Amino acid sequence: MNPKDIVKHGPIYGRLILVLSILVFGANVAFAEVTKNQFESAKELAEQGDRYAQFDLAVYYENGLGVKRNPIEAVKWWRKLAARGDDAALWSLGLFYESGEGVLKDYTEAYACYSVAGITQQCARASLRELESKLSPTQIAEGQRRGRELMKEIENNNQPTIGERISSVWDTIYLTVFKKYKTAWFSVIFMVGLIWAILTGRVFPKHK
């Protein structure tokens, strides 16, 4: 743009910049309001055990969306998800352990989180390689040991309860037997009922 045009049409450009600034400011305010509402909703659901809400809440605390940034709270919610094997949560938790933000710096825990998350996450594998470049062979061996330990903890945390097992068995029976052969089941039930009615004299009552 020609500098002479800027000087000539300065007031117009000034007004345009002002309008754009107001629009950007308004959008930021609207975004803040939305994330505040989302934060409050996520917190309520997260405390009830909703995993998706727990994930959102950890992100909000980590990035200061809808609430003042709080690494300690972010670590708390990432840890809950990581305990159930959430790979994104494990990677995020590893980053906090490596940096020492919101939690005591612990390269062993960071290594363990990266190694487990790295089973499915490329970014976690990259973080693991970068961390390994800072560690001694002894520290790497300790991190690997802790990683195996963490895997077992996650497996134990994901063991189904008795109620879940019963529900699973029932679902299997229903889907593979009853639902598949429901016509045959109804026929059998009908025939058994009919025979019982005949034998007890409910269909053809006996004359005295």
- Described by its quaternary structure, the protein is single chain
Q: What is the count of helical runs?
A: 10
The CA-CA distance between the termini, in Å, is: 114 Å
The backbone outline, from C-alpha atoms, is elongated
Report the order of strands and helices: HHHHHHHHHH
Low-confidence stretches: 1-10, 22-32
Could you tell me the strand content as a percent range? under 5%
Portion in helices = over 70%
> How big is the Rg?
31 Å
Note down, in words, how this protein is organized:
With 208 residues, this protein is an all-alpha fold. 77% of the residues lie in helices and 0% in strands. It is built from ten helices and no strands. The longest helix is centred in the N-terminal third of the chain and has 38 residues, at 10-47. The chain is elongated, with a radius of gyration of 31 Å.
Topology (SSEs and partners):
Layout: H1 3-8, H2 10-47, H3 51-63, H4 71-82, H5 87-99, H6 107-117, H7 122-132, H8 137-157, H9 162-178, H10 182-199
Helix pairs in contact: 2-3, 3-4, 4-5, 5-6, 5-7, 6-7, 6-8
List keywords for this structure.
single chain; mainly alpha; 10 helices; elongated; disordered N terminus
Summarize the structure.
The protein has about 210 residues and is mainly alpha-helical. It has ten helices and no strands. It is elongated.
